[in-house]
């Protein structure tokens, strides 16, 4: 089987599982992204342990991040109060205290990578719950709504597709690089093409879901996701370049690891929440 066919099959299955889990129910959404959180944290710790000389406790780190996601899900859905976060605080206390007894050669590096992965991976995935569970002021309870979390991924895929197609067609005519030091293949014309396609898709989103956001608000959300998704991709490229690796993992045949697939979302999700929160305030 050629690599192109393998990539196509894996990509199709990946999108189908992700979209299906979001549309199906809050339970499938929660279970899938709890699993994604754990796998991504494990992959991150595995990479820094192998290539950066760290000795992060992969199990504790992954379990802590999964718990944070589940705690957000419980709190945002209204099933749990704020006390649900207390065990996560205990895990954060455990990580540095455990280094007192582990006698590792570089405990500071272990702390730094463990805490960085919680902020870089566990928190953004957990914040998806803030998009998925919305408050109903009339019923005074939260309800699950698939549209906003799914729209973030739709805009990310749209941005990637537009950037790839535009860059492939016009890179010789407009060769200016977006960030050559980190990612030599990204061009300005590709990024602009991705943004334009996002605006078109945002207009379609407004056509089918006019009650959720205005036309300008949909466009604003698409551009926020596009810009911060691009930065998220570059951040992961910097991470891999620093470690001297090509792919973050091999769990997805033809597509690399979990970080390779979700890198853009790790900055796009918090940015989308900040954007939507700002709209509600003003």
TrEMBL record:
Catalytic activity: a 1,2-diacyl-sn-glycero-3-phosphate + CTP + H(+) = a CDP-1,2-diacyl-sn-glycerol + diphosphate
Keywords for this protein: Cell membrane, Lipid biosynthesis, Lipid metabolism, Membrane, Nucleotidyltransferase, Phospholipid biosynthesis, Phospholipid metabolism, Transferase, Transmembrane, Transmembrane helix
InterPro entries the UniProt entry points to: PC_trans (IPR000374)
Enzyme Commission number(s) of this protein: 2.7.7.41
GO-annotated biological processes: CDP-diacylglycerol biosynthetic process
Pfam family, any one: CTP_transf_1
Membrane protein topology class: Multi-pass membrane protein
Chief location bin: membrane
GO cellular component: plasma membrane
Sequence intervals crossing the membrane: 12-39, 59-78, 84-102, 111-134, 188-209, 215-235
Pathway given in the UniProt record: Lipid metabolism; Phospholipid metabolism; CDP-diacylglycerol biosynthesis; CDP-diacylglycerol from sn-glycerol 3-phosphate: step 3/3
Family: Belongs to the CDS family.
Name this polypeptide is given: Phosphatidate cytidylyltransferase
């Amino acid at each position: 089987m050629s690599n192109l066919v393998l990539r196509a099959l894996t990509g199709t299955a990946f999108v189908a599982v992700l979209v299906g889990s979001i549309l199906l129910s809050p339970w499938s959404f929660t279970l899938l992204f709890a699993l994604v959180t754990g796998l991504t944290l494990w992959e991150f710790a595995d990479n820094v342990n192998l290539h950066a000389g760290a000795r992060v406790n992969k199990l504790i780190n992954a379990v802590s991040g999964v718990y944070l996601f589940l705690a957000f899900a419980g709190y945002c859905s209204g099933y749990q109060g704020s006390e649900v976060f207390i065990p996560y605080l205990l895990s954060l206390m455990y990580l540095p205290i455990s280094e007192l007894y582990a006698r590792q050669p570089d405990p500071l590096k272990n702390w730094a990578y463990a805490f960085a992965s919680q902020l870089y991976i566990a928190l953004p995935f957990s914040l998806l719950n803030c998009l998925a569970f919305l408050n109903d002021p009339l019923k005074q309870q939260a309800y699950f709504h698939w549209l906003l979390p799914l729209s973030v991924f739709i805009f990310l895929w749209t941005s990637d597709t537009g950037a790839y197609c535009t860059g492939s067609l016009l890179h010789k005519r407009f060769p200016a690089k977006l960030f050559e030091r980190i990612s030599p293949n990204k061009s300005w014309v590709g990024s602009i093409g991705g943004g334009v396609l996002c605006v078109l898709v945002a207009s379609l989103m407004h056509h089918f879901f006019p009650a959720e956001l205005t036309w300008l608000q949909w466009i604003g959300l698409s551009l926020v996701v596009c810009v911060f998704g691009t930065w998220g991709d570059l951040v992961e490229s910097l991470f891999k370049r620093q470690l001297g690796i090509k792919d973050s993992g091999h769990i997805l045949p033809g597509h690399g690891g979990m970080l390779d697939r979700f890198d853009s979302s790790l900055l796009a999700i918090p940015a989308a929440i900040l954007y939507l929160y700002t709209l509600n305030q003003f």
